[in-house]
Design goal:
- The structure is a single chain.
- This protein is of the alpha/beta class.
- The protein has a single domain (about 5-250), classed as Aldolase class I (TIM Barrel), CATH 3.20.20.70.
- About 40% of the residues lie in helices and about 15% in strands.
- Helix 3 (about 80-85) links the parallel strand 3 and strand 4 (about 90-95).
- The two termini are about 15 Å apart.
- Bound molecules: 2-phosphoglycolic acid.
Length: about 250
């Protein structure tokens, strides 16, 4: 099955508002002609609105970096999926390893956030990935498999084709150490076969699996050449327009 590639930028907690809007305007000018791949930027939530506004009528979509699992209530400081959706955003990153590491995110809370996204029409980008210690102990596939099974619990097969999974080995995030295309492909193929086990072949063939972890202009082409890599979730290299454009325009 042909899956439309998605190149997504995760800005994390970077950029001032004016910078964010300028970036969006410049990116839109540079990639306005791109049609065969989807483009997404995920700014800090306070910039979603101005960035969306700057990207109106362009091919660049806007997403959130997280959502809370309740739709509304007395949850000081939280932002819900319907709130994000009502701005016009279409995607949300869920379960990023930095949230797992610094904000006590677990597979169970990932699942609750994921269900909140589905309820409100946001496409969740569910992040999974092993730590260096887990990889060295030979536990990569166990860890990724159980993150997937628990993270995707309660998802109906009808909703599953709309999911996006991001494989982000923790040891490759922000470290300059990318998984080799072969290592990434091995885990992506495993993720697809796990999805087949949960939802069946039709669904697993439709789900896009992004790679994330030190994606750069000089490694994107060979990553995207792998059969089960359907896009990238880019941190550091998405903060600069020229490098993000080169990643969007990967050759393949
Ligand atoms: P990086 O981050 O590209 O800076 O390694 C990727 C991510 O955390 O999504």
């Amino acid at each position: 099955m042909k899956r439309k590639p998605l190149i997504a930028g995760n800005w994390k907690m970077f950029k001032a508002e004016a910078e964010a809007v300028l970036f969006a305007e410049e990116l839109a000018l540079r990639v306005g002609d791109v049609q065969d791949r989807e483009i997404l930027v995920c700014p800090p939530s306070v910039y979603i609105y101005p960035v969306l506004h700057a990207l109106t009528n362009t091919p660049v979509m806007v997403g959130a970096q997280n959502v809370f699992w309740e739709d509304q209530g007395a949850f000081t400081g939280e932002v819900s999926a319907p709130m994000i959706r009502s701005l016009g955003a279409r995607h949300a990153i869920i379960g990023h390893s930095e949230r797992r590491q610094y904000f006590a995110e677990t597979d169970e809370t990932v699942n609750r956030r994921l269900m909140a996204c589905l309820r409100s029409g946001l496409t969740p980008i569910v992040c999974v990935g092993e730590s260096l210690q887990e990889r060295e102990a030979g536990r990569t596939l166990d860890v990724v498999g159980s993150q997937l099974k628990a993270g995707l619990a309660h998802v109906k097969a009808d909703d599953a084709p709309g999911l996006i999974i991001a494989y982000e080995p923790v040891w490759a995030i922000g470290t300059g150490r990318t998984a080799t295309p072969g290592i990434a492909q091995e885990v992506h193929a495993f993720i697809r076969s796990t999805l087949t086990g949960i939802f069946g072949t039709g669904v697993s063939a439709a789900v896009r699996i992004l790679y994330g972890g030190s994606v750069k202009p000089d490694n994107i082409d060979e990553l995207m050449a792998q059969a089960d890599i359907d896009g990238a979730l880019v941190g550091g290299a998405s903060l600069e327009v020229a490098s993000f454009e080169r990643i969007i325009r990967y050759k393949g």
